[in-house]
Amino acid sequence: MNMNLQAPGMSELQDRIDKLDLSRLPRHVAMIMDGNGRWANAKGLDRSVGHYEGVKSVRRATELSSDLGIDYLTLYAFSTENWNRPQKEVDILMHLIGMAIEQETPDLVKNNVHLRLIGDIERMPKEAWDRLHACELATAHCDGLTLTLALSYSGRRELTRVARLIAEEVAAGKLNPADITEQTLAAHLFTHDMPDPDLLIRTGGEERISNYLLWQTAYSELYFTPVLWPDFEKAAYLDALIDYQRRERRFGKTGAQIKETLNTTES
Ligand code: IPE
Ligand code: IPE
Ligand code: MG
User: What residues have CB less than 8 Å from 157, skipping those under 6 apart?
Assistant: First the structure.
């Protein structure tokens, strides 16, 4: 893939793109966008400035995913636990999420990006919810990158919801408990029609999952970087993709078995 090499900083991007095998990119990348508050505090600024600056990283990650032809990008934007932050910060985040989505909608449509939402979306304040819903509708026909925002999201709550939905089907006599399989559970997830994330990136230096996509990340490759989310440039994203491609995904098998499968599919 060739990018416009005249633009500043482009040659360092092209160098990285050249290192990538574009036929082996992850289909689904999930990200935990962490470090906005610390980014702002380090500069003596209010935490909210970090959140504002973080929107630019969202735009960069979306643009690069779309340009590379990655099918799914799923961003953790607000966790159920984040409702426990000071009310002022919660209000700012809710306002910012709504505003940013409204502003980005024309570009998302132009770039053929389809916006989806997962989480307890009904908990979002009406102002933000209306803007998010308008963007969902405006991008519903787009069939390029699927950009999913996890909002008021908790992996445990998602799984609890799955248990409730299945229990209702059993109680209604539509499902026999003996027939419940992994596929039954997966079919009731918010992400039921997406592949599981191949790669999970967390910025901000913490090395934890923080209740994100607990079922779906069972076999994801994990990539932790100390880079704070507002500093997460395209080059840093490409570094994560290069690192991902160096790994051998064994899914419980041995390295020799994986090499054998690769040889048979290649020949
Ligand atoms: C991530 O940055 C954004 C959200 C969780 C909404 P933080 O706000 O968690 O930033 P740090 O971790 O305090 O630096
Ligand atoms: C995780 O970040 C949630 C989001 C990025 C939206 P946090 O900053 O809330 O995570 P913890 O609480 O430090 O684990
Ligand atoms: Mg944090």
Answer: 80, 120
